[in-house]
């Protein structure tokens, strides 16, 4: 009887905690939705800002955020996955692996504003990329690489070592084993880590503030050398610089940013479930 009571109490505590955690994003989304209703319209999403950012739409900010996330993904996934493969498959306990893990641990604790200053000094000034989409994406790449590598390493390490040994015993090379066995099995974890990293990149302000974010643009960026507007920086500008910006407009921008991050997460969940379903 006592064991049953303890079990019920523990289950109830876990359930309440899970519901409380779930309630936080739901409450935030509901609050922003209610507050942003007066400013929500189709023209908000498809038109350019006007009246000193107090009116018009946020199309350049949405497009710029998508460009930043897309280019960051292209720049961060290959080195992140390659590093994780090296750490798990080729030198899990070597001195270089220990040094890489120590560097990643250090990088993961550095504030994002420091990455922004580094990007300003190296990519914008030293390498001459200027304030641009490329410089901002490279800075975001450095920011999210530790998370991508950590998640990819955990996903690869979760594949049983016996499967690798069986593949090698059948005559497959190590590269073939990684390509045709390990990576497909680790794909759900890789997708999850990538989505988490890109969601963080989409919401960052400090790194792009110094490297590529524009206050206002009259046209969409056409090359990686152009500046971009971004939802996170646009929200920062509305909240701190633009006098007379309405609260519903600020809430609408915040809601769009939150929905973009949720959309990224949803894509990851769908891909993960679809892939797991195909494997079954």
List its salient traits:
2 strands; 11 helices; mainly alpha; 280 residues; 1% strand; two-stranded antiparallel ribbon; MetI-like fold
Write up this protein.
With 280 residues, this protein is an all-alpha fold. The chain has a single domain (54-279), classed as MetI-like (MetI-like fold, Orthogonal Bundle). The chain contains eleven helices and two strands; from the N terminus they run ααββααααααααα. It has helices at residues 2-36, 42-46, 59-90, 95-108, 112-126, 133-157, 161-169, 174-203, 206-211, 231-240, 247-279; strands at 49-50, 55-56. Strands 1-2 form a two-stranded antiparallel ribbon.
Outline of the structure:
With 280 residues, the protein is mainly α. It has helices at 2-36, 42-46, 59-90, 95-108, 112-126, 133-157, 161-169, 174-203, 206-211, 231-240, 247-279; strands at residues 49-50, 55-56.
At CATH's second level, what is the architecture?
Answer: Orthogonal Bundle
Number of domains: 1
Annotated CATH homologous superfamily? MetI-like
What percentage of the residues does DSSP assign to strands (E)? Answer: under 5%
Summarize the helices and strands and which ones pair or pack:
Blueprint: H1 2-36, H2 42-46, E1 49-50, E2 55-56, H3 59-90, H4 95-108, H5 112-126, H6 133-157, H7 161-169, H8 174-203, H9 206-211, H10 231-240, H11 247-279
Antiparallel strand pairs: 1-2
């Amino acid at each position: 009887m006592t064991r049953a009571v303890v079990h019920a109490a523990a289950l109830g505590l876990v359930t309440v905690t899970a519901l409380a955690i779930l309630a936080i994003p739901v409450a935030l989304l509901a609050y922003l939705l209610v507050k942003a209703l007066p400013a929500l319209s189709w023209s908000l999403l498809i038109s350019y800002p006007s009246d000193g950012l107090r009116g018009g739409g946020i199309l350049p900010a949405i497009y710029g955020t998508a460009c930043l996330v897309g280019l960051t993904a292209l720049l961060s996934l290959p080195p992140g996955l390659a590093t994780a493969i090296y750490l798990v498959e080729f030198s899990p306990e070597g001195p270089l692996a220990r040094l890489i893990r120590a560097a990643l641990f250090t990088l993961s604790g550095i504030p994002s504003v420091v990455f922004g200053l580094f990007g300003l000094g190296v990519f914008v000034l030293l390498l001459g990329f200027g304030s641009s989409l490329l410089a901002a994406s490279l800075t975001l790449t450095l920011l999210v690489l530790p998370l991508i590598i950590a998640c990819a390493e955990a996903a690869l390490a979760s594949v049983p070592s016996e499967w690798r040994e069986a593949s090698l015993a059948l005559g497959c090379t190590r590269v073939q084993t990684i390509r045709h066995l390990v990576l497909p099995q680790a794909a759900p974890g890789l997708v999850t880590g990538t989505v988490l990293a890109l969601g963080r990149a989409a919401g960052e302000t400090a790194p792009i503030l110094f490297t590529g974010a524009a206050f206002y643009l009259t046209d969409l960026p056409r090359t990686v050398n152009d500046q971009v507007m971004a939802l996170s920086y646009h929200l920062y500008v509305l909240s701190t610089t633009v006098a007379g910006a309405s609260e519903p407009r600020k809430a609408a921008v915040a809601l769009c940013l939150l929905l973009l991050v949720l959309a990224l997460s949803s894509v990851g969940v769908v891909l993960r479930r679809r892939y797991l379903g195909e494997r079954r």
